From TrEMBL:
InterPro entries noted in UniProt: Aminotrans_IV, Aminotrans_IV_CS, Aminotransferase-like, BCAT-like_C, BCAT-like_N, Class-IV_PLP-Dep_Aminotrnsfr, D_amino_transT
Keywords, alphabetical: Aminotransferase, Pyridoxal phosphate, Transferase
Free-text function comment from the UniProt entry: Acts on the D-isomers of alanine, leucine, aspartate, glutamate, aminobutyrate, norvaline and asparagine. The enzyme transfers an amino group from a substrate D-amino acid to the pyridoxal phosphate cofactor to form pyridoxamine and an alpha-keto acid in the first half-reaction. The second half-reaction is the reverse of the first, transferring the amino group from the pyridoxamine to a second alpha-keto acid to form the product D-amino acid via a ping-pong mechanism. This is an important process in the formation of D-alanine and D-glutamate, which are essential bacterial cell wall components.
Family in the record: Belongs to the class-IV pyridoxal-phosphate-dependent aminotransferase family.
NCBIfam families listed in its UniProt record: D_amino_aminoT
Protein name: D-alanine aminotransferase
Quaternary structure and partners: Homodimer.
Biological source species: Staphylococcus auricularis
Catalytic activity: D-alanine + 2-oxoglutarate = D-glutamate + pyruvate
Gene: dat
Pfam families (UniProt xref): Aminotran_4
Length: 283
């Protein structure tokens, strides 16, 4: 079976999936994206993801031309065409193809939409055992709330993690912990979850929102406050979250054991809540 890709409104074979050489996504990273999970044939939290895409588009002055409903339908067709029951969908929209000039094309050109999907299971082993992370300076721009295609800072951070055999690089601006290269970060101390507040320094993660809801439902204090690298290093538990890693415990940071080195009770409660949340959404 050949892989099918969505190019604008057409589902085409992978070999026919082409984007013009002068698309602004290539030349300037001038576009936005989302990554949405599929669990048991259901798109997971598609609405907030696509609403975030609309917000990202607004923030960069890109006229999307698609509503949340249009995009949901197109994505559903794509996952059906690829027979994905468990996996994820990547979707990006660029400002379109135009002669290279930093300023927006005038008149505006049609945006280019591209989406593909991939089949895979939940990361069971890592969820049970936890992963390693390293800390690194956050060198990204000051609008990390926009899910933009410009990911060089994130790419370099992730590559730094890979170099040290870690699953994630936890970034900090000066002493303040912001987020992972592709995840949000939480420190647990004395039963309280701390995470960076929503502002321009982090992405407003959809998984973060689910975690907040689970924590509130289970009476686990959830504080949206900044904290330092030292505080993170003294934490009882560290967790990272994203659409792909869900609620992922970090058991080693910069080579040092976190807490007692095992997956902690708060991580376990949030993981249980997350599974229940998926089941409720799919019911
Ligand atoms: N990334 N912060 C950053 C910088 C991210 O790239 C991501 C997700 C998150 C978590 O957001 P969410 O819970 O909505 O997935 C936070 C996705 C998975 C990616 O780039 O593929």
């Amino acid at each position: 079976m050949t892989t099918k890709v969505l190019i604008n409104e057409q589902i085409v074979d992978e070999k026919d999936a082409t984007i013009p050489y002068n698309d602004r996504g290539f030349t300037f990273g001038d576009g936005i994206y989302e990554y949405i999970r599929v669990y048991d044939n259901h798109l997971f939290t598609a609405k907030p993801h696509l609403e975030r895409l609309v917000r990202s588009a607004d923030e960069i002055g890109l006229d999307l031309k698609y509503s949340v409903e249009d995009l949901t339908e197109l994505i559903k067709e794509l996952i059906a065409a690829n027979h994905i029951s468990n996996g994820g969908v990547y979707l990006q929209i660029t400002r379109g193809a135009a002669p290279r000039d930093h300023a927006f094309p005038t008149p505006a050109v049609e945006p280019n939409l591209m989406a593909f999907c991939k089949s895979y299971d939940r990361p069971f082993k890592d969820l049970e055992n936890g992963v390693q992370a390293v800390t690194t300076e956050d060198i990204r721009w000051l609008r990390c709330d926009i899910k933009s295609l410009n990911l060089l800072g994130n790419v370099l951070a992730k590559e730094y993690a890979v170099k040290y055999n870690a699953a994630e690089a936890i970034q900090h601006r000066g002493e303040t912990v912001t987020e992972g290269s592709s995840s949000n970060v939480y420190a647990v101390k004395d039963g309280v979850i701390y995470t960076h507040p929503i502002n321009q320094f982090i992405l407003n993660g959809i998984t973060r929102r689910v975690i907040k809801e689970i924590a509130e439902a289970r009476d686990i204090p959830f504080k949206e406050e900044t904290f330092t690298v030292d505080f993170l290093k003294q934490a009882d538990e560290i967790i990272i979250s994203s659409t792909s890693v869900e609620v992922m415990p970090v058991v080693k940071l910069d080579g040092e054991v976190v807490g007692d080195g095992s997956v902690g009770p708060i991580a376990k409660q949030l993981q249980a809540g997350f599974v229940e949340y998926i089941e409720q959404q799919n019911a």
